[in-house]
Amino acid sequence: MEFLGSGTSTGIPTVGCDCAVCRSSNPRNKRLRSSVLFRVANGDDEERRLLVDVTPDIRIQALRSGFTSIHGVLITHTHADHCHGLDDLRSLYWGGGRVPLELWAYPESLSSLKQTFAYIFDADYDYKGIVKLNAHVFDQDAFEVAGVEVLPVQVIHGGMRVAGFRIGECAYITDTNEVPPASIEKLKGVRLLILDALRRAPHPTHMSLPKALETAEKIGCERVFFTHINHDLDHEAINRELPDWARLGYDRLKVAIEDDGTISVTEPAASDSPPPIAF
In order of start, what are the domains of the chain with their CATH numbers? Predict the structure, then answer.
């Protein structure tokens, strides 16, 4: 999995804030809105790329990551910071020969997308400069995207349900204040987990850092990286407090289970092209 963004809904730095984290020069404290890219080897020479959520920062995220095509879009829920970049997928649609992109969401999420982006889903809309989507719904059962099995994992985000996703021994869960027992069972056997941890203090719709650690222990994963982080958490200071198996995620970090079973962590090099976006 590649972290495209690791920040909360405002991104970090937050507009108008002069706290130490927002003023930090540490690039790991600069967080675009939360999203990941699953890169899955599937028995042939072509990796499968599954984009989880389409943030308002997706253009920057794609340029930094360097991907120019995807095999599917997975929507966790339809709060603005997770879907309001949908229109910017048109570049991938055009570059892919104008083949509609495959998108998967809960039924209620797809209904919401069809209201917010009515023109994208309107078959009679005559302007050609938009993305076209081939939309599907899921609920509790596993589904397949480009030959990759995806297991949805339902979590609670205040008064709404949000989809986490498990692919093999990896899982991604954002925007949750509670992972129900049935979903904990679905996550048993996951070795590598990315999990919501907004801040230290409790929050009505997100996990605090202590609760996220407790949840990761219940799941029994080997490594956990936290995401959807606000400006209360300084990257270096928090990591010094965490156990060895837990770390804050950050933009452009890549974590993976390799063919030999090891969990690898690949940090972005300063010389990577394109360079990190400056703030």
Answer: 2-13+20-266 (3.60.15.10)
